[in-house]
Amino acid sequence: MKYLRYSWRRFASAGPIVGLTFALASHAQSLPEGPGKADFQRTCSVCHSITVVTARRLSYSGWENVVEDMISRGAQAAPDEEKQIVRYLTANFGIGSFQSSAPESAVPEEAPVPAQTQAAPVLDASQKARAQELIRSSGCLSCHRIDGEGSYAGPYLGDVGENHTAEQIRSSLAYPSKELTPQNRSVRLITQEGKKVVGRLLNQDGFSVQLIDASGHLMTFERANLRNFTIITANSMPSYSDRMSPQDLSLLINYLESQTGTLP
To answer: Is residue 17 part of a domain?
Structure first.
């Protein structure tokens, strides 16, 4: 069989061969030293490139949500290891962190680190319902996922307010960049049998490619069994400055700003 397809849970326990492949790819990327580093590498690098994680900045509660979600999907970690991973990520990749080697005691176990200096606007039920309808009717769910709906093709929106300001969100909606950032790029490949696959790139090395498709299925392909492999760098997201009214755009921005860590 030339390619393999996994669910989140099955992929996380794929075995020593896949684990070794990812370990080799991750080894070249340096991580800050500290308690939890080994647990993080063992638990998270099975499905993710190290840069997919280290490019983000989340609060304690944000990282806690992310780690809990990955464990619910099949990542293997004991409760004490889970807590250690969250502490490690918050200390080195938390809000305002520059990969400092903060001691474990510097990270609060219960109280989350504030995500932003100004509180996100509070929306009433009707405003939330309208914002959710805008997301559905504007085609956002064809690439993004939020409120338990949508695609895994693009960045997750359920925690976008955790590390983005209202102005940054507005800029992304009204003036989207022409190129995707490396952690959000997709790949288009064709196997030797002629099967065409498109998905978001998670990791790659000299021997294999790992991606997730729009439905959330994780897949790994051996490079030797690929006829064609293309990284998609162009951003297909349109500008919404002229696709909805200024009032609706502002409402959508406020809603996204309020998203600070819901699960996919």
So the answer is: no
Residue with tokens 């962190």, as numbered in its chain: 97
165 within some domain: no
Domain annotation covers residue 212:
no
- Cα(171)–Cα(253) distance, rounded to whole angstroms? 10
Whole-number Å distance between alpha carbons of 22 and 15: 11
**Cβ pair 233, 180 in contact under 8 A:** yes
* pTM: predicted TM-score of the whole model, two decimal places: 0.55
d(CA 89, CA 81): 12
CA 89/CA 74 separation, integer angstroms: 19
SS3 label, residue 256: helix
- Tally of CB atoms within 10 A around 130: 17
170's tokens: 């507005």
| First vs last C-alpha separation in the chain | 31
Contact 35, 84 (CB under 8 A): yes
- Read off φ and ψ for residue 57, nearest 5 degrees: -130, 110
Chain centroid, CA 178 distance in Å:
20
Domain range for 66 is 31-114
Q: Which of 10, 82, 93 is nearest to 43 (CA)?
A: 82
Residue 200 lies in a domain: no
Q: Which amino acid belongs to residue 31?
A: L
**pLDDT tens, position by position, 145-164:** 998 899 998 888 988 888 78
Which amino acid does the sequence have at 15? G
Q: Mind listing the pLDDT tens digit for each residue in 1-43?
A: 444 444 444 444 444 333 433 333 444 346 788 888 888 887 7
> What are the Cα distances from residue 181, in Å, to 85, 96, 114, 169, 232?
25, 20, 26, 15, 10
Q: Tell me how crowded residue 259 is: count the other CB atoms within 10 A of its CB.
A: 20
Q: How many domains does the chain have?
A: 1
Are 215 and 180 in contact by the 8 Å Cβ rule? The answer is no
d(CA 116, CA 77): 30
